[in-house]
Amino acid sequence: MALGNTATRYGSVTKTFHWLTALLIFTVIPLGVVAYNLPYDTSEQLALKAQLFSLHKTVGLAIFATALARILWAISQPKPGLLNAEKRAESFLAQLVHWLLYGSLVLVPLTGWIHHAATTGFAPIWWPFGQGLPFVPKDDGVAGTFAALHKIFERVMVASLLLHIIGALKHHFVDRDATLLRMLPGRTEAAGGAHRTAVPLAAAIGVWAAALVLGGALGLFAPKETGAQAAQLDAVASDWVVEDGEIALTVTQFGSPVTGRFEDWTAAITFAEPDAPGPAGTVETQIAIGSLTLGSVTGQAMGPDFFDAQTHPTASYAGDLIKTETGYEAQGTLTVKGTQVPVTFPFTLDIDSDGLATMAGQLTLNRLDFGVGANMPDESSLLFAVDVALSLTARRAATE
Q1: What is the rounded CA–CA span in Å between residue 120 and residue 295?
Q2: Do 280 and 165 share a structural domain?
Q3: Per the domain annotation, does 61 fall within a domain?
Q4: Of residues 149, 33, 153, 151, the one with CA closest to residue 102
Q5: pLDDT for 127-179, tens place per residue?
Q6: What pTM does this model have?
């Protein structure tokens, strides 16, 4: 069989692309559906879910590469004529569906790839180019937008695929023409009418635009709810007013670090520099657990097996500030998920001539000490260690 197309038949390269694409599509869709619906209550369940999602993403990128190669090949080849060109409405619909399929084969995996690149954590791609993309930041807003686009274009692809299959079966069993036979192995030739490109392409663009509008109306672009509302923290009286700061944590899932931060927290601080090592003040911190963002696993982190934000909406730390021989540390009690654990937190402190205090510190906690992720009692999917980093700038409150 000849490699290239003619005006009356498809060549072997086009047929190979067609059936390879079909095989990949009918692999990637069930993988995504099954992976999405699998539970992740234990380490084994989470590992299986991640493996299937990784396979789903990797097959999706294989579709993307195949689609680009297929489009480049199609551009270079003549296209056999339509066998129903005299039926204008039917031939228009056939070409519209083809445009939607070609576009979807690029848009669906591309938006999924961008969503993955913008997200931290969970289910790496088994692909030689790495997990990131140039010019795509690690950003929850970007990830959410492209997750919605991926879902919308996916629905368009599935609808187009069903119409394509129905059309092929109609040609074969109702019209009894050679449309389907021309794409099967062997040499099947049939002359047909010319293709009309501009109008079906414009209609396909209109379908994609309408799908985006519908997706927006259905709220697909709205920020994804994690299932937990951040607790409203009361204002606190403090000798030092925090002007800027961050409480960040990093977990390691499937060998990859996932960093997040709490957006809402308060600190009541008293501090006076002592002349010698010893007591220097106190600190009381309240943290709204529901304000945590932790990449793709934020929703999981809020669940009852982890932070259980519905039952325990806040965490707290209360302790004494101590000047040591080499620096400073906070000695106190950290309460997470109703569990109190003694924690010593070393930090650096610098107070400039304008009275602006800058502090930074970090420590490593064991999640099991607080009953976080107790359903995953080993480190096969999630390490025990949780790295916590705190930095802030504060200025002494004005006195009346």
Answers
A1: 5
A2: no
A3: yes
A4: 153
A5: 776 788 999 998 888 999 999 999 999 999 999 999 999 999 998 999 998 88
A6: 0.84
